[in-house]
C-alpha cells in the first residue's frame, strides 16, 4: 500500500468515526409553545423563527430533529432540554 493510499484510508476512517448524531425532540401534552420556543432558543441556539418552526413540526409530526453534531457536544444540550421538562433523546 502506498503512502497516499494509507493517508486516504486514515482520512476516511476519521470521517466515519465523526458521525453526526441528532437530538430529537418529541411532542408532549404538557409544555406550551412558548416554553418550547424559549428553551430551543437558549439551549440549541436557534433563532426565534427556527425554534417556532421546530415547535410546530413537533406538534404536528410528533417529533423533530433540533440539533445535530458530535455526541459529546449534544449530551449537555439534551440534558438541559430534559431538565426544562421537554422530551428529547440523542439518536
UniProtKB/TrEMBL annotation:
Listed GO biological process terms: protein catabolic process; proteolysis
Entry keyword annotation includes Transmembrane: no
UniProt-recorded Gene Ontology molecular function terms: peptidase activity
Domain of life: Bacteria
Adaptor protein ClpS core domain boundaries: 19-84
UniProt KW Hydrolase keyword: yes
Pfam families given in the database record: ClpS
Keywords, sorted A to Z: Hydrolase, Protease
Protein name: ATP-dependent Clp protease adaptor protein ClpS
Species for this entry: Aquimarina brevivitae
Amino acid at each position: 500500500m502506498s503512502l497516499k493510499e494509507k493517508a486516504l484510508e486514515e482520512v476516511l476512517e476519521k470521517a466515519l468515526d465523526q458521525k453526526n448524531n441528532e437530538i430529537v425532540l418529541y411532542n408532549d401534552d404538557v409544555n406550551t409553545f412558548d416554553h418550547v420556543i424559549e428553551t430551543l432558543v437558549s439551549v440549541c441556539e436557534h433563532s426565534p423563527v427556527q425554534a417556532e418552526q421546530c415547535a410546530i413540526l413537533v406538534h404536528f409530526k410528533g417529533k423533530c430533529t433540533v440539533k445535530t453534531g458530535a455526541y459529546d457536544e449534544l449530551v449537555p444540550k439534551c440534558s438541559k432540554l430534559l431538565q426544562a421538562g421537554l422530551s428529547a433523546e440523542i439518536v
